[in-house]
Amino acid sequence: MAQEKKAPTLAIVGATGAVGTVMIDIINHRESVPWGEIRLIASARSAGKKITVRGQERTVVELAPEAFDGVDIALFDVPDEISAQWAPVAAERGAIAVDNSGAFRMDPEVPLVVPEVNADKVHERPKGIIANPNCTTLSMMAALGALHHDFGLRELVVSSYQAASGAGQEGIDRLQAEIAAVAGKGVGSRAGDVAEALAAAGLPEETPFKAPLALNVVPWAGSRKDDGWTSEELKVRNESRKILGIPDLRVSATCVRVPVVTTHALAVHATFEREVTVEQAHRVFEAQPTVVLRDDHDKGVFPTPAGVVGTDPTYVGRVRQALDFPNTLDFFVCGDNLRKGAALNTYEIAETLAK
Amino acid sequence: MAQEKKAPTLAIVGATGAVGTVMIDIINHRESVPWGEIRLIASARSAGKKITVRGQERTVVELAPEAFDGVDIALFDVPDEISAQWAPVAAERGAIAVDNSGAFRMDPEVPLVVPEVNADKVHERPKGIIANPNCTTLSMMAALGALHHDFGLRELVVSSYQAASGAGQEGIDRLQAEIAAVAGKGVGSRAGDVAEALAAAGLPEETPFKAPLALNVVPWAGSRKDDGWTSEELKVRNESRKILGIPDLRVSATCVRVPVVTTHALAVHATFEREVTVEQAHRVFEAQPTVVLRDDHDKGVFPTPAGVVGTDPTYVGRVRQALDFPNTLDFFVCGDNLRKGAALNTYEIAETLAK
Which Enzyme Commission numbers does its entry carry (chains A, B) (predicted)? Predict the structure, then answer.
């Protein structure tokens, strides 16, 4: 251990993917960064690629055990099975792995961190791994965490309006191709005519969304789980409980994909231990630096995905006190699923560690 | 009163509008109809227009008091203020007015009818007026009414995915124009780039949706009401209570417009007096002739708006027993807002009266 504190080395695993690309964009736009070396790691297919990070051209190196030598913090933006295999390798080599996959989120020995809510948990990491939550859960966590702190959350009924990019670049490409295929066709008034327009345009029947997404909504996200639930819906429940530290939080979620490129939205019905007025909720949101309140009912001001995509905060609007449910608020929240929902929160965990 | 029963005369007021057009389509496709004369009524602007109804060309007549002479049942598919003025005129002239506007729905002397749920109410009409519910409420009523009958509904948390045609033909045209304006532009990843694409295509800034709808969702439907609520959200609450006959039903709704041409969808979280399993709910839905169950979790079968638009039933899928809320189901429901949500239910009320 040298006497002088060396600036830590950061590695980005999956640097060339959809989330990895946003991660590099975030690093490039930070006023300052605490890192010495920034190492880019990807699969053999992408190794050798040149990417400019903070004005310096860097060559992507191949994912291998020795790629983690000398790394202090390794951010993983790769599929579950790659993380499951390689995050422990990074940890063995001395790095703290911050993982954005689903591989470790519910592991009791891995903290699940949203810095605004439970930053202190970054220090409890017996496996050397910290997990980043699912993007849908994350989209509401900064807002809900602040309310929970003041009013004590007890129940959550959530419906999602999830963007195509939740299914990665493949999802974005598919939605854009579908929009092009239905444009000017006047379809959407007869059962199946959207699917016919997609077929006529030569789009493969196989889609990341299980059904046409253009001019449609699809009540399915993630994979099939028991008792009629999807993986996405159970993540919203289980991850909310873990992040907020409320093991018996009552949660029901219905996750629905909508034809939006990027930015998830959620309609939230949240019940608290104590009464909470709209004015009190507004004050809580305004006091939270990473939440932006867009809620002027008289002027019809509210957040929408296309209005906030590509930005960092969590946006909240349409805050109402439930008419028939005590201690309950209904509100609408939007957050960029590739930024706060993925890359940004992962990076904020790394910044928290570097402090 | 003649000894021989004369086939009743039906009038359609607003015969040339979006819902009126669907009404005539429904009448044309009925196997048989109980009507003698079918009279088409519209504003002066549309009077004189020829429309074929059940193989016979009919001339649209102008809305005037004498237009209702000899009419037994008059179906109104016109804006609130036209209904408010003219439904009582029709009633004075001896017709039963069945009104699809919002003018009379909450009038205690006007029944609000969904034939599957409360057909008997058509006979309690001191004003000679019967109201047809709002399309969003209607989209879930056949399914919810059946569950309420068996299990006793107590609470409802609803998020809507509402189609553009809820804002009439103007809404459909606007969405189609927006889709054409964003197609192939690769927009949706930067705040405001969808709005810029609409402006670049020359679309007027004034829209029925308050915000871009293509590649977006908009948490606003209807008009501004007190305490942060929209008219649409309060209709879901107040009309559900009246139709189901549960004056103290607890309801919270968040109404969101989505880029779908026609067919509303709703994510429903419904709590009952008694326990209800998924199997029991399936049996209830299967026994209800106007509900179609599309729910095979293993095969990923569920309803979507684009898959069912233009058809009559209410479609239900994704039925789940809530994990943390007793006696509670979560499910997803789709219904064509111009058919069951408007023209079809209005026509079914007329059929009920004719029996």
Answer: 1.2.1.11
Active site residues of A: 135, 264
Test the B interface: residue of A174, A179, A225 with most B CBs within 10 Å: A179
Contacts A188 to B, Cβ<8 Å: 176, 260-262, 306, 309
Q: What's the rounded mean pLDDT across residues B311-319? A: 97
**Which amino acid belongs to residue A221?**
A
Q: Are B98 and B76 in contact (CB under 8 A)?
A: yes
pLDDT digits (tens, 9 = 90+) for B275-291: 999 999 999 999 999 99
Contact B146, B291 (CB under 8 A): yes
Residue ranges covered by each domain of chain B: 10-133+343-354, 137-163+218-335, 170-201
Tokens read off for B164: 């553009």
Summarize pLDDT for A136-168 with one digit per residue, the tens: 999 999 999 999 999 999 999 999 999 999 998
Cβ pairs A/B, distance under 8 A = 242
pLDDT for the residue numbered B313? 97
Q: Which residues of B touch A259 (CB under 8 A)?
A: 215, 258-259
CB B10 within 8 A of CB B350: yes
User: Do residues B98 and B74 make contact, with C-beta atoms less than 8 angstroms apart?
Assistant: yes
Task: Tell me the C-alpha distance between B15 and A292, whole Å.
Answer: 47
Q: Domain spanning B137-163+218-335 has what CATH number?
A: 3.30.360.10
Chain B residues whose beta carbon lies within 8 Å of the beta carbon of residue A295: 228
Which positions ≥6 away from B206 have C-beta within 8 Å? none
- Give the 3-state secondary structure of residue B134: coil
User: At A205, phi and psi to the nearest 5?
Assistant: -65, -35
A4 contacts: CB under 8 Å, gap ≥ 6? none
Q: Phi/psi class of residue B165: alpha, beta or left (left: φ > 0; alpha: ψ in -120 to 50)?
A: alpha
The pTM of this model reads 0.96
Q: How far is A58 from chain B (nearest CA, A)?
A: 26
- Closest-CA residue in chain B for A217? B304
Q: Report the alpha-carbon distance of residue B296 to residue B307 in Å, rounded.
A: 15
Q: Which residue has the tokens 């990076």?
A: A347
State the DSSP H helix or E strand holding residue B237, giving kind and residue range, or none if neither.
Answer: helix B231-244
Q: How many whole angstroms from its chain centre is CA B224?
A: 20
pLDDT tens by residue, A251-301? 999 999 999 999 999 999 999 999 999 999 999 999 999 999 999 999 999
* Interface ipTM > 0.90: yes
Active site positions of B, annotated: 135, 264
- pLDDT tens for each residue of A324-345: 999 999 999 999 999 999 999 9
